[in-house]
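Continuing from yesterday's entry. The apo prediction looked reasonable, so today I'm repeating it with pyridoxal-5'-phosphate included to see how the binding region is handled. Same sequence as before; SMILES copied from the compound registry.
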Amino acid sequence: MSEPLTTGGDATGTDTEGGDVTGTDAADRHAALADRAAELDAADKLAAVRDRFVLDGTVYLDGNSLGALSTGVLPRLTEVVGREWGELRIRSWEESGWWTAPERIGDRIAPLVGAAPGQVVVGDSTSVNVFKALVAAVRMAPEGRDEILVDAATFPTDGYIAQSAARLTGRTVRAVPAAEIAAEAGATTAVALVNHVDYRTGRLHDLRGITAALHQAGALAVWDLCHSAGALPVSLDADAVDLAVGCTYKYLNGGPGAPAYLYVRQELQPRFDSPLPGWNSHADPFSMAAGYEAADGAARGRVGTPEILSLLALDAALDVWDGVAVPDVREKSLGLTDYFLECVAALVPAGRLESVTPRAHAERGSQVSLRCADAGAVMRELTARGVVGDYRRPDVLRFGFTPLYTRYADALRAARVLATVLEGTA
Ligand SMILES: *Cc1c(COP(=O)(O)O)cnc(C)c1O
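Holo prediction written out below.
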């Protein structure tokens, strides 16, 4: 599933910017691309949002692994630690709203994933939430359905957790390519776990169509939104998704290890039977009752004491979304990835790279993955020259385009440096 980048250039730059180009054609090509970047940046509706982030001269294209720090987080954490913890101590569970933070912050994420309030709760890692969602889905599925379908190219943790969930619930796991899940779902399918965007290739899957096909087969749909929420529109309510999970440290910029979120569709909440029914999900936690009675609503997805410091860092990080419309984010994401692909095709010597990210907008997330010989060494060299993406073994260079803080000029610089590095290793 890869697409060759055919219009290879002949840039022979040797400096770190790749700007020292010989030959008039190459110089013209560089100038034309630079003009385009300047035009596109000037017309960018989101340009001012970049000022909400702490950035430097690096071209940071790894926001799909760890989003950049936003300016409001450090002052807010200073207040949380100094005042709420340092001075108010235990009183903050009530007076500073710590106890209800998981649902309150869930409601801030909800509009970014197309969910009405009361269906998203924040806490624990994505891995843990995959476990909660899958086991609960199996428990809600019709009797006699013994199969869990898992996206064959899934991020590994989802697959590992699905195996364990299957063993615990007496089901089996069958790996199916995401694009074939709609066709493969049948009378024995309890639930399918699908990654909305493939973390390796950047391929975007048809959330609405796959969910509808699963429902047609009488099965439930659990979606992993790690690489989509914050980068493109997600319509969980409108597309009738049953359960969803996602992490907040990628395109939501919540910080390293920021807690994940769990969406449970409102009408399924009464039947959501958590496999991790900790005291925070009890209907009356401070009754300290011996018997468990599940809380109503999204709180049913909670487990134990929330990770307050990282939760409140995330809360502050979500301020960058004020006044930002997700369709504008999508438009810029596609603009950036189109432009980057165009720059790479124009500047990088032919035959050195192959894009494994689909060209069709309907199938593209917010990253560009390029297959490249010696990708590990190439990415180390790019990083040393101030262009940070990442490397996925064995041969993929991954460039994540976070529309809130990436400029077209950054995309051009990344392509120029990539061309220079590949010239040097030819
Ligand atoms: C990043 C990512 C995860 C990460 O899970 P953690 O529990 O936060 O380590 C899970 N699934 C997908 C699809 C991811 O991209």
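Comparison notes:
- Confidence is low (pLDDT under 50) at residues 7-21.
- The first strand starts at residue 3 and ends at 4.
Will overlay with the apo model tomorrow.
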